[in-house]
Design goal:
binds (2R)-2,3-dihydroxypropanoic acid, Rossmann fold, alpha/beta, globular, single chain, seven-stranded parallel sheet
Length: 326
């Protein structure tokens, strides 16, 4: 019996690639080239499965041109690079990698928020360039975290994990805005309160954005939204580039309209809006919120498990995705 053929679209951990090779005829990407849609289409001819990450464009054009494809398994939780509707219409199962990265990503979101509030990278750059000559009472004064109001935009698993850190570890007052409200039993232990988006923006001392990206969340935070925020507030985006209008954010930071920001994701990444690069009060990291070694391994193994199950008649560890509106 011939084995299914699978494409691993990026260089992944050798142990994970070896597991896939035990089940499938595998084509790997050892050079870790960012293949275009056309190159992916060419490599996917005759392949039943593909292992993807955050960026490979699995869109309707690709789906129509890859008639053998049966399973698309991503090692990321966000799947805005995959047209789930087009896949489902062609009977292709799509899985993502939820849960395994929740706590690690929440740790990082919290760290970014603290770095922005307490001006950690800004002051480090100052020190490194030899500008530190004396201590002063108002030297790099920033905002407190403990006892302030934490606003979460998007209260899924990661949002709730950040809320727990804020409420239980830092005595923060937690507000959130989400399409659906949490059950009272989930709100109560962290004292979380649902508010409308305008109230969230106006009352948060520290806003953390964790909504999925899609047409409904494109520039969900634009200039008019930033204008509602406290001038001392911080904004942290660990969701996806495009949820925040980066140009408007750079302007708000530069003009003093907003206290500070921290961004792990960018519209059009790996390009970063040039206006952000020379704004001092923004912390910038290259989409690494889930990047602890144990978590990245767990994400990759989960995607591999799902691919193996889907192409060998098993049950994937996480259910195939349904099309959503976001
Ligand atoms: C995800 O899984 O969607 C992250 O953005 C990648 O860490």
């Amino acid at each position: 019996m011939t084995r299914p053929a699978v494409l691993i679209a990026r260089r992944i951990f050798p142990a994970v690639a070896e597991r896939l090779a035990a089940h499938f005829d595998v084509e790997t990407n050892d050079a870790d080239t960012l293949w275009s849609r056309e190159e992916l289409i060419q490599r996917l001819q005759g392949k039943q499965g593909v292992f993807v990450t955050t960026g490979e464009p699995i869109d309707a054009t690709l789906i129509a041109a890859c008639p053998d494809l049966k399973a698309v398994c991503s090692m990321a939780v966000g799947y805005n690079n995959i047209d789930v509707t087009a896949c489902r219409a062609r009977g292709i199962a799509v899985t993502n990698a939820p849960d395994v990265l929740t706590e690690t990503t929440a740790d990082f979101g919290f760290a970014l928020m603290m770095a922005a509030a307490r001006r950690i990278t800004e002051s480090e750059h100052f020190l490194r360039r030899g500008a530190w000559t004396k201590w002063a009472p108002d030297f790099f004064v920033g905002a407190d975290i403990h006892g302030t109001t934490l606003g979460i935009l998007g209260m899924g698993r990661i949002g709730q994990a950040i809320a727990r850190r804020g409420a239980l570890g830092f005595s923060m007052n937690v507000l959130y805005h989400n399409r659906s409200r949490l059950a009272p039993a989930s709100e109560a232990p962290i004292g979380a309160r649902w508010v409308d988006k305008a109230t969230l923006l106006a009352e948060s001392d520290h806003l953390v954005i964790v909504v999925p990206y899609g047409p409904a969340s494109h520039h969900l935070i634009a200039a008019a939204d930033l204008a509602l925020m406290k001038p001392t507030a911080t904004l942290t985006n660990i969701a996806r580039g495009g949820v925040v209008d980066d140009a408007a954010l750079a302007m708000a930071l530069r003009s003093g309209r907003l206290g500070a920001a921290a961004l792990d994701v960018f519209e059009g990444e790996p390009a970063v809006h040039p206006a952000l690069l020379d704004v001092p009060n923004v912390v910038l990291t290259p989409h690494i919120a889930s990047a602890s070694l144990p978590t990245r391994l767990a994400m990759a193994h989960l995607a591999a498990d799902n691919l193996i199950a889907l192409l060998t008649g098993g049950t994937p560890r996480t259910p195939p995705l349904e099309p959503t509106t976001c």
